[in-house]
Write a structure and sequence with these properties.
Blueprint: H1 2-20, E1 26-28, H2 29-32, E2 33-35, E3 41-50, H3 63-75, E4 90-99, E5 108-115, E6 126-133, E7 139-146, E8 152-155, E9 160-163, E10 168-177, E11 190-195, H4 200-217, E12 223-225, E13 230-234, H5 241-248, E14 252-254, E15 260-264, E16 269-272, E17 277-294, E18 297-299, E19 310-312, E20 315-331, H6 334-344, H7 348-361, E21 364-365, E22 367-370
Parallel strand pairs: 15-22
Antiparallel strand pairs: 1-14, 2-11, 3-4, 3-6, 4-5, 5-10, 6-7, 7-10, 8-9, 11-13, 12-13, 15-16, 17-20, 17-21, 18-19
Protein name: Flagellar P-ring protein
Subunit structure: The basal body constitutes a major portion of the flagellar organelle and consists of four rings (L,P,S, and M) mounted on a central rod.
Signal peptide: 1-25
């Protein structure tokens, strides 16, 4: 009785867990789409990194660094007329950052710095106050702080060790937002949701799920799929836009993507999508190995002769063919396709060649992406 009770309890637990498990391809809207008005904005600026230990720009090779140092000192009230600086503890850098959506003045963001001159390392340096501008020329943030560099250089008299990149780094929370974006979220009359992976089926399903929610909450339809990427959501008259977006982004929808096979020939990586299908096709794969070896022989002349010692060439060529197995592939599912390829017994580079040939033969019902 105890064993029967345990089996009944186990089957009930498995059934309950399967009931709680979401269907394949089910995701929240916030995970598959982004708000068009909530995109990042790129910022850029030019600045100086000081405090380097002899790894900065050589001022003769980087004249813009010398000009920047003189301009900065003059703004600080220090005259540089008639003097020539040969220090190498300053480097000119390009500073970039992403202004997050709805950022308010006073908030901080990370910045990335990269050397413009012949500096060898930014390790230990400090970025001095640098203004960051947007595409419209307006200043939106000011950056300053210690530069964090992950790479390093080690050099001795007869050896040098380099790891990572030492001419670029980050300043965590190094920029302070000084100006907010002109547009505000609640000034809009509608929402535009953009799919990260454009697909008509997903866009139409998203609009239907939003309309189902709106029919219960507001008594009407508010969403429409414009194309494979954008879904337009109109704001109801009495709705709060922020509350509406919070409710919509948590709606669970079924996602769909085209069948795709991604191949990276450089690393030998193969990614096969779930819906990839292969029509019945016969595949034969074999490798030919050719080995050429040179074993020259020294030929000595006879004693007391006037001959010369010569080298007699001796070449051996061996050709060996491996594989040659013929297999029939019928990939009605991802598991059967992978099993069929593994049964041939080839390495990833061979599987890449086979997939390309199957695509050429018209038997691969998927998009083949080569990286």
């Amino acid at each position: 009785m105890k064993m029967l009770a345990c089996k009944w309890f186990l089957s009930l637990a498995v059934a309950f867990s399967m009931a709680l498990t979401p269907a394949f391809g089910a995701s929240r809207i916030k995970d598959v789409a982004s708000l068009q008005a909530g995109r990042d904005n790129q910022l850029i600026g030019y600045g100086l990194v000081v405090g380097l230990q002899g790894t900065g720009d050589s001022l003769r090779s980087s004249p813009f660094t010398d000009q920047s140092i003189r301009a900065m000192l003059q703004n600080l009230g220090i005259s540089t007329q008639g003097g020539e600086s040969r220090t190498r503890n300053v480097a000119a850098v390009l500073v970039t950052a992403n202004l997050p959506p709805f950022a308010s003045p006073g908030s901080r963001v990370d910045v990335t710095v990269g050397s413009l001159g012949d500096s060898t390392s930014l390790r230990g340096g400090t970025l001095v106050m640098t203004s960051l501008s947007g595409a419209d020329g307006q200043i939106y943030a000011v950056a300053q702080g210690s530069v964090v560099v992950t790479g390093f250089n080690a050099q001795g008299d007869a050896a040098t060790l380099n790891q990572g990149v030492t001419t670029s780094g980050r300043v965590p929370n190094g920029a302070i937002i000084e100006r907010e974006l002109p547009s505000k979220f609640k000034d809009g009359f509608n929402l535009v949701l953009q799919l990260r992976n454009p697909d008509f089926s997903t866009a139409v399903g998203m609009a239907a799920a939003i309309n189902k929610y709106a029919a219960q909450q507001y008594g009407g339809r508010i969403a429409e799929a414009r194309d494979s990427q954008a879904v337009l959501v109109e704001k109801p008259k009495m709705a709060d836009l922020a509350r509406l977006m919070a409710d919509i982004e948590n709606i669970v929808i079924e996602t769909d993507v085209p069948a795709r096979v991604v191949i990276n020939e450089r690393t030998g990586t193969i990614v096969i999508g779930q819906d990839v299908r292969v029509n019945e096709v016969a595949v034969s794969y074999g490798t030919l190995t050719v080995e050429v070896s040179e074993t020259p022989t020294v030929v000595q002349p006879l004693p007391f002769s006037r001959g010369q010692t010569v080298m007699e060439p001796n070449t051996t060529i061996n050709a060996q063919s491996d594989g040659g197995t013929v297999a029939i592939l019928n990939g009605s599912s991802l598991r059967s396709l992978v099993a069929g390829l593994n049964n041939i017994g080839v390495k990833p580079d061979g599987i890449i060649a086979i997939l390309q040939s199957i695509k050429t033969a018209g038997a691969l019902q998927a998009e083949l992406v080569l990286q």
